[in-house]
Specification:
heterodimer, A: alpha/beta, Rossmann fold, 5-stranded parallel β-sheet, 5 helices, 5 strands, globular, B: about 700 residues, alpha+beta, Rhopdopsin 7-helix transmembrane proteins, Beta-Lactamase, 4 domains, 15 strands, elongated
């Protein structure tokens, strides 16, 4: 079973989202901030990271950079509420495998995760 | 002493000192020499006129009359001499003038030898008068010829001259006219026509005006002298009038009602004079100041005071109108206009004016005047002013179409944002160098005031846009996240059903699950609705300035609500220390929010990484409501502190417009508040806002 790390500070969202991911057949981990996320990445080595861009202690791009630097094999999808082509391009340049815009569509997520 | 004797004395007393004064002011000037020459002839005329009138025996009367004749004869060539000098015709007219002097010398001989006169007869109250000979009548024709010749050259000179010269000639011609009218009134007496030559006194006025015309543009102290002369003459005339009137009424007209002696009536008039002299003197000083001298220094004070004030005006119409009003009241120009650049059309449009009939005037950037102002950054003047060269004919014709003799550029940094046009002064005085100095100060302040006023309108909108921009990311977060939660929740419910996860569950359980989905959605929609309300409130268009009683701590909360998204996400801790006493102030609610929003946002932007903003509201020992906004940011370097409130100054590089603090300070002033700050590099900055208590 693939391990997916969800990084987001909105518990209401994470609660539902991780439940959906379980239905899709993934093992899920959750981090509410950047530090927690980097910890889990080091210790649990998830195959996929779904990371919100805005976090209480740092921006998602820092986590992306570190993850891709230390573990280039980990697939990284950035989730952001701020739709902007420039932002998307920048994130892809930084190494994001996918950029997902909120509000998310669960069936698209299912396809996307299968692809990663 | 008769009135005629008095006129002679006055002429003498005016012409000699003025002639010497003007001469010693500039002994090298041939014009000043010519004026002295003319005045010396008039002096001979005046003193001998006086002595002729007061002499008791026929011998001395005839003696002084012949000296008077020399004065009369000498005045004419001296007058021509002066006119040719004034109109720069000396070279051309040298031989003519020498001939004139020669002919007049001959007439002086005829005068002294008695060939002018057939005899002398006494006239009642007017002294001993001559009976002219035929030779004298020839001289009289020559006299008139010389007068008209002189005036002809005044006219030629007027036509050929501009500026100061033109005005000098104009005044001298007017003065000449006055003087000769006075002189002419003497002639009928010679031919036994009863016409008392009282207007002889006008010759004294003539010399004063000419002295004024020669010196007014160069010397200030001549004004003092003339003022004193006029005031003295006025007081003298008044005293003289009081004595004459009193004596006339008590002794001649109504002696039956006033059975008093001549001596007593003299005493009464002296009493009247003593009690009324001071008010009369003040009155005369006031009217000479008001109508002749315009109180130069005072108007400069007014301009300087205005310069300090206009910078605090925030409304463009008010800036322009108050400036025009100031010009109208101090400089008294015929016209004045303020032109402001319309960036969209690249034209300088007339924004406000007086004296200009056409209101819809616009100059393009390619026009000669604009090119001149842009290239030189100097004022454009039609005629040369001490050290400032007049503009070329192309520029001056454009200025003429604006009825302007001076155009002051309004520049900000290197941009020409507009210009001020000023027409001729109603007093006909030229603009002097010191006028221009004050006007240039005014123009540079006016530029800032106009730019500020313009930008305040733009900036109020831009600030709001920037604030909305600041919020944009936050709004995505604040609206996007709840939407995301709702969407995920609903999708999860559907997913569960699709995957058959509800199989085997009771309807009641499924309904409960559905209700929980709906509750979650309701909760999130409330979150979104809160956000949109705050946004709508902040984006409201600005209204008129309307002070009301507001509570500072509440307005800070309102401002914080808008800025909150940014701060929270930037990981800045907010500490509030609100003292329990009232913090109500009288201020415009919207502007107060703008002030707090700007200062708090600045504080947030000053903090790199993690930090704290402390907001304190308390009452000072002086009874003011004080708001302190302290950040733990990078602080302001010493060399930048004094520039913080300058418009367009920014420490934020390309991010800031630099308008924030200068506008905040203006908003503070408008709401009767004061703003200051203290800062230490590496420790942070504290802004201190003080308002008068509102209750």
């Amino acid at each position: 079973m693939k391990k997916v790390l969800v990084v987001d500070d909105e518990w209401e969202f994470v609660k539902n989202f991780t439940e959906a991911l379980k239905i899709f057949g993934y093992e899920t981990y959750w981090a509410a901030d950047g530090e927690g996320a980097l910890n889990i990445i080091e210790n649990k080595k998830p195959e996929i990271v779904l990371c919100d861009y805005r976090l209480p202690d740092m921006d998602g791009d820092k986590i992306l950079e570190k993850t891709k630097k230390n573990h280039p094999e980990i697939k990284f999808a950035m989730v952001t509420a701020y739709y902007d082509e420039v932002v998307e391009k920048r994130l892809r340049d930084l190494g994001a495998d996918e950029v997902i815009f909120k509000p998310i569509n669960l069936s698209e997520i299912e396809k996307l995760l299968a692809k990663l | 002493m008769t009135f005629l004797a008095f006129t002679g004395l006055t002429i003498f007393l005016a012409s000699l000192p003025l002639g010497l004064f003007v001469y010693y002011k500039n002994p090298k000037s041939s014009l000043n020499k010519a004026y002295l020459n003319l005045n010396l002839s008039i002096t001979i005329y005046g003193i001998s006129y006086f002595l002729w009138q007061i002499s008791k025996n026929t011998g001395s009367q005839i003696f002084w009359f012949k000296i008077l004749g020399i004065g009369i004869i000498l005045i004419e060539p001296a007058f021509l001499h002066f006119v040719f000098n004034l109109t720069d015709k000396m070279q051309k007219k040298k031989n003519f003038l020498i001939t004139c002097y020669g002919i007049n010398l001959l007439f002086i001989y005829f005068n002294l030898s008695g060939l002018f006169y057939v005899g002398f007869i006494p006239k009642h109250n007017l002294g001993l008068w001559p009976i002219p000979s035929f030779i004298f009548s020839i001289y009289l024709a020559w006299w008139f010829f010389q007068v008209f010749y002189g005036f002809a050259y005044f006219l030629i000179g007027l036509k050929e001259s501009v500026g100061i010269k033109h005005n000098q000639i104009k005044y001298c011609a007017i003065a000449g006219g006055i003087g000769f009218v006075g002189a002419v009134t003497n002639w009928p007496g010679w031919y036994n026509i009863n016409f008392p030559p009282y207007l002889n006194i006008l010759i004294a006025l003539h010399v004063s005006v000419v002295a004024y015309a020669i010196l007014r543009y160069q010397l200030m102290d001549i004004e003092v002298l003339i003022k004193k002369t006029l005031v003295f003459a006025g007081m003298f005339a008044f005293s003289f009038g009081v004595i004459v009137a009193t004596v006339l009424i008590t002794q001649d007209l109504l002696p039956q009602y006033f059975a008093i002696s001549r001596r007593l009536s003299m005493a009464i008039s002296i009493l009247i004079i003593i009690f009324s002299l001071r008010p009369i003197e003040n009155f005369l000083i006031n009217i000479t100041n008001k109508y002749l001298f315009q109180k130069k220094y005072e108007y400069k004070q007014i301009l300087k005071a205005f310069i300090e004030e206009v910078i605090t005006v925030l409304n463009l119409d008010e800036v322009v109108n108050s400036t025009l009003k100031l010009f109208d009241e101090t400089l008294h120009p015929y016209t004045a206009g303020i032109f402001i650049l319309n960036k969209a059309e690249d034209k300088y449009q007339l924004y406000g004016s007086f004296g200009l009939e056409e209101k819809n005037i616009a100059l393009t950037s390619e026009s000669k005047l604009i090119t001149f102002l842009k290239n030189t950054k100097h004022p454009a003047v039609i005629k040369q002013i001490n050290g400032i060269v007049g503009v070329n004919p192309e520029v001056s014709s454009e200025m003429a179409s604006l009825k302007a003799v001076i155009v002051l550029p309004l520049t900000l940094h290197t941009d020409l944002i507009g210009f001020i046009s000023l027409g001729r002064k109603k007093s006909d005085e030229e603009y002097a160098k010191d006028d221009l100095d004050v006007l240039l100060d005014l123009a540079s302040t006016e530029s800032i005031a106009i730019a500020n006023a313009q930008l305040l309108t733009e900036a109020a909108q831009a600030e709001r846009r920037a604030a909305i921009g600041t919020m944009a990311a936050g709004i995505h977060h604040e609206i996007g996240n709840p939407l995301n939660i709702m969407a995920t929740r609903i999708q999860l419910f559907k997913l569960a059903r699709q995957k058959g996860l509800f199989q085997g569950k009771s309807n009641e359980d499924i309904l409960n699950e559905a209700e929980s989905v709906l509750d979650d959605c309701l909760k999130q929609s409330g979150r979104i609705s809160d956000t949109t309300k705050k946004l709508a409130n902040f984006a409201k268009p600005s209204k008129e300035f309307k002070p009301e009683l507001i509570t500072v701590s509440q307005e800070i909360d309102e401002a914080m609500a808008v800025i909150g998204y940014d701060l929270e996400l930037d990981r800045i801790k907010i500490k509030k220390e609100i003292s329990s006493d009232s913090n109500k102030i009288l201020a415009d609610k919207h502007e107060a929010q703008q002030i707090f929003f700007n200062i708090i946002r600045n504080a947030a932007q000053a903090i790199e990484g993690v930090g704290t903003i402390t907001i304190r509201v308390f009452t000072t020992s002086g009874g003011k409501v004080c708001v302190e906004i302290q950040d733990t940011g990078k602080g302001i370097p010493e060399d930048k502190k004094h520039r913080m409130f300058e418009p367009f100054f920014t420490t934020k590089g390309t991010k800031g417009t630099g308008l924030g603090l200068s506008i905040v300070r203006q908003l503070m002033w408008r709401n009767k508040g004061e703003i200051s700050f203290k800062s230490q590099v590496g420790i942070g900055t504290t802004f201190i806002l003080e308002f008068p208590k509102g209750e």
